[in-house]
Amino acid sequence: MTDWNTFTTLVQELIANYSDSKLKELVAYIDPAIWGELTLKERLLIRTGITSKPKGRDICYANLFRHIQPPPEAMEAYNSLIAFLFTPDTARSVVTAKIVEAKKEIQTSEVRRQKLALLVQSLPPEPPAYLQPLQQPEAWKTLYEQASNPDASWDDALKAASILATAKTEEAAVEKFKGELKTLPTVLYQSHVAAIGPFIEEILLAGASENEIAQFLQQQKESLTDLEEFRKKQQEWLNVHSAPFMQKLFTPQLLPYPDLSNEIKRLVTMPFEYAPRETLDLEAYKGDIKQFYEAQAAKIAHLLDAAEARVKKLQEMSEYSKIFFTVTEPASHFKDIQQDYLTLEDKVKSLALDKEHFSEATFEETEKKLTEKYSLYLKVKQEMPTAVVRLLKGAHKSEHRAEDDKAAIKRRLFEIFWNISPYLDLMENFQDMRKVLTSQLKEGMRKFYAGTLSSHELLQLCQEMPYEHDVVKLRNEITHRSARLKDLRDELLRLTSEVQETIRLLDIANLESVELLKLSETIRTIARDVENPFKAFAEAETKDAINLVFRKFWIRIEEIQPLIEEAQAVANHELQHAAVPLKDALLRALDTLEEVQALKSGTRPQIVSRIAGELVNPTFNLVISYMHSIEKSYSFVKPLSFFMAVREHKARLAMLQEAEVLDRVIKDTIDFAKAMQYVKTFEEERVDIILEAFERQHIIEPTWESYYERMNRAARLVEDEIFLDIGLLDRHALMDVDEKELNKTLHIAISRAKKHIYEPKYGIQASIQDVRAFEVWANAVVDDSKSTDWLLEHLRNYCHMLFDAKIILAARGGMLLPKCLQFINEVRALTVYQEAILQKKRNLNVAEWGPEWIPECQDMRCEIECFEPEEESADALRPLLKKFQSTFADVAEDKIAHLNKRLEEIEGLSKNPKKECPFIYIPGYIAFFDMEYPAV
After folding, report:
1. Number of CB atoms found within 10 A of residue 897's CB
2. How far apart are CA 877 and CA 662, in angstroms?
3. Across residues 247-266, what is the average pLDDT?
4. I need a surface site. Which of 12, 475, 675, 705 has the fewest CB within 10 A?
5. How far is the CA of 377 from the CAs of 327, 370, 441, in angstroms?
6. What is the pTM of this model?
7. 280 CB burial (10 A radius; 0-12, 13-18, 19+)
């Protein structure tokens, strides 16, 4: 237990004879339990002596002593200690000792008064600042006045009065007497000597004796002394009253602003000025004195309210700045919005207060400056939410653009990045090139997330990749081989079309060509080999072997070409005598066509009657001519020979109706692809390559149902690839596009996307509704008021969902690469899920700032986007899972178990190029069209 009497004694000794040892003795004397709430830093400061500078050391000690709460009997010593420690250290110990000595020497003896006068000459004329709030100033003032006027006594005043009484008419004596009156112990006479003078003169002129004058002066002395004592008591009351207020100003927030304590000191030490009155009514003056000191007390209380308001404002502005930097700090890493961020940062930093500027300012100056700062803060606060939302949206867009650039370049160079190619002789080149490009891409993404690379600069980096010398050389070789394959396919499709046409015409005429049937099967066999290059080139491991495969294909084609020409010549000779049955089959097909048109428009086009009249004496060539004419006028009936060969009207009607729908779907898809081609990409010819999916149009084999299914699936494939390739994922590649036309094109694309989802499902559509954010996207209203940026973002979201769905679908087929991509996507989706959870926990002000960015989530997104496994295997993917677990320690166990299960599935697979391709279009890869999609 601390003995507070001893505490008071130690304080008095410290003030009387200041030293470091006494200060440390006082600290050590306090009960250790009292220091229990101090921080480790504060305890360390006590143990090491705080600091080497006395002023800084004493202020630190004063802040430490504020942690104790002494009882009332020790409060006076406690206040003296706090005030003493906040005093500048200059000559403190000397002044304190002289004050104590002077108090003891205040006596009436002339010797001591003379000593005191000499003493006072070494002291400042005003009491030190640390004594202002306490009671010592009055003692000092009295001491100073007595010591500095050693000859001013009442005896001298009475003697002067006596002299004046004997010389009533001497003006000089009267003036001298008035001067002597000024030495009375109050300043009241200093302002009222003009009013008292005539009253004294009346006494003198009335012949007052010396005793009467002395009696009068004695009465005045007693009355004025009483008045002065009353004023001193009021001053003492104000001193005591102001001490707690001063103590409340010793807070970390207000210590840098001494104007508050200085203002209280000024109010406490402000002298009372007596207002002029007609008469010397002492009671009235007492009322004035009391009213004055009560007004000062009210001002001090009001000042404390101002101090509390200041603290609130300072805390509000400080908290606002902290929230701003917390909310926007992650976004500051993106170079794209760095300038916008710095502009906002400067606005927020302008709210900070330079505390050194306020150290010498007055209370009025400080309040004015704070009012200006707070007004600026309110203005910034009003403007900031919109600016911050715009900033964070810019950060998101920047991140999305970087992801899009990465996705776009990987799709452009998918053969290199994913090593999917039928050409084994190039595989080593693919792998080496993949390492180089992957390293460049990873480095670019790291720099982007580090803020040293903008999305535009990253785009330039990505755009340069396809045109690097080695990459161009490799791509040219692939393009050359693709062109050679296309030439083979074109020739085979031409032969197939001619042979099928001849076989159908023979069938209609009840004729048959065994040779043509055999040749048709041979062509189909060669086409299958050409259209599945992964099988065709499976054994070709050198460039010469590759060329040999191409040569063998042409040899096989050239071997059957003369045989086909010979068989067709024979068949055409036989068909010259079959004009009538061909005519009848043509008219039956045209009658069905008229019915289809009637069901569609309500009127029959009367084709049959016209052609029947012109084919009274038909010939084979004339019938063929009319067939070609009808195919030009009604494209959906091509090949017309196929529908002529269908003998049942009902079946033919159903097929023609389906053919019309299919033809419209294909035309619509081609028109859509060409419209999207308006949005420029790295290589516009990519659209034409994608449209090769329709190259088997009108090649109906083996059945109408399989053809119809294959072509519908081809239409969906083309739409998928167009969505993923043309300016959607690759939004940065928009060049020389008129804003209105772009907006129109995007509306077409979004409308197509929604139609793409809700029409009868072919493969990929069965999975797209399983992916994240589908409901939000599908329910979003798209109208003409939407900006181009909004439309691009909306379409981008669909493209990501579409690509995810393709991956999910292919992964269900047991393919390794889609399984690996699905794993990465699930880690990405789980990161988004964790971010939503952490935002709920940490969000500071959702209404004002929007969802808070979570730094670890951004780090994880960076890790995912920069993650490029060297191979498709579980071991290559495990580091990503390990990084995820180290970033989010509180992830639910079932979610980690799900990811581990995915890795187990991947471990059980091996890469099979023939199965790795369906979710990426490779021209001529017919296996895609024949593949049965797994059940959803």
Report:
1. 10
2. 43
3. 74
4. 705
5. 17, 10, 43
6. 0.65
7. middle
Q: Print burial letters for 510-533: b (CB count within 10 Å at least 16), e (below 16).
A: eeebeebeebbebbbebbebbbbb
**pLDDT beyond 80 at 99:** no
Contact 569, 500 (CB under 8 A): no
Cα–Cα nearest to 612, from 576, 580, 575, 642: 580
What Å distances lie between residue 353 and 314, 349, 547, 805, CA to CA? 9, 9, 78, 55
pLDDT surpasses 90 at 653: yes
DSSP output for 353-375? --HHHHSS--HHHHHHHHHHHHH
d(CA 135, CA 845): 49
Within 10 A of 671 (CB to CB), how many other CB atoms are there?
11
| Crossing angle for the helix pair 469-508 and 427-450, to the nearest 10 degrees | 120
Give the number of residues written for the chain.
Answer: 936
738-780 residue pLDDT tens: 778 788 888 888 888 887 766 655 446 656 766 767 777 878 8
Give the pair of three-digit tokens for residue 454: 């903008």
| Inter-residue contact 890 to 394 (CB < 8 Å) | no
User: Residue 29: what residue type?
Assistant: Y
Segment holding 499, helix H or strand E: helix 469-508
- Classify the phi-psi angles of 733: left when phi > 0, otherwise alpha if psi is within -120 to 50, otherwise beta: alpha
Q: Which residues of 87-106 are buried (b: 16+ CB within 10 A; e: fewer)?
A: beeeebeebbebbeebeebe
One-letter amino acid for residue 713 of the chain: R
789 class by beta-carbon count within 10 Å (0-12 exposed, 13-18 middle, 19+ buried): exposed
pLDDT, tens digit, 9 for 90 and up, residues 117-160:
444 444 445 544 433 333 344 544 454 454 444 454 434 433 33
Contact in structure between 183 and 267 (CB atoms under 8 Å): no
Q: Do residues 906 and 826 lie in contact, with contact meaning Cβ atoms separated by under 8 Å?
A: no
Q: Residues 917, 923, 927, 929: is their CA dihedral positive or negative?
A: positive
- Whether the CB-CB separation of 817 and 876 falls below 8 Å is answered with no
- Tokens 């490799």, located at residue: 474
What is the C-alpha to C-alpha distance for residues 836 and 452, in angstroms, rounded to an integer?
28
Smallest CA-to-CA distance from 268 within 69, 127, 146 is with 127
Q: Longest C-alpha distance within the chain, in Å?
A: 174
Over residues 702-722, the mean pLDDT reads 87
* Residue in the structure block whose two tokens are 């772009």: 742
Q: In whole angstroms, give the CA distance from residue 665 to residue 668.
A: 5
What's the sign of the alpha-carbon dihedral 725, 731, 732, 738?
positive
Q: Rounded to an integer, what distance in angstroms lies between the CA atom of residue 132 and that of residue 142?
A: 14
Query: What is the rounded distance in angstroms from the CA atom of residue 169 to the CA atom of residue 649?
Result: 155
Give CA–CA dist 731/394, Å, rounded: 15
Token pair belonging to 922 = 């490779």
What are 461-503's pLDDT values in tens digits? 888 888 899 999 998 998 899 899 999 999 999 999 999 999 9
Q: How far apart are CA 459 and CA 444, in angstroms?
A: 10
Residues 257, 310 contacting (CB under 8 angstroms): yes
Reported as half-sphere exposure (CB side, CA atoms, 13 A), residue 465 has a value of 28
Spatial separation of the C-alpha atoms in residues 266 and 250, rounded to whole Å: 17
The helix or strand, by DSSP H or E, that contains position 834, with its residue range, turns out to be helix 816-842
Cα 613–Cα 600–Cα 662 angle in degrees, nearest 5: 100
Q: Locate the DSSP E strands across 95-172.
A: none
Cis bond before residue 71 (omega within 30° of 0): no
Phi-psi region of 602 (alpha: psi -120 to 50; beta: other; left: phi over 0): left
Q: Which helix (H) or strand (E) holds 515?
A: helix 514-531
List the structure tokens of 704: 């109408």
pLDDT at 135: 35
